[in-house]
Structure prediction request, 34 residues.
Amino acid sequence: RTIKRKGVVDALENMGINDGDTVKVHDFEFEYFR
Prediction:
C-alpha cells in the first residue's frame, strides 16, 4: 500500500515491469504482481 501511495508502482509500470518480475530496491527484494 505504501509503495503504491508513493508512486513506486506507477514508476515500475512505466519502466515496463511485468507480473512475476523480481524487483530489488537496496536490500529489499520482491516479486511484482499487480
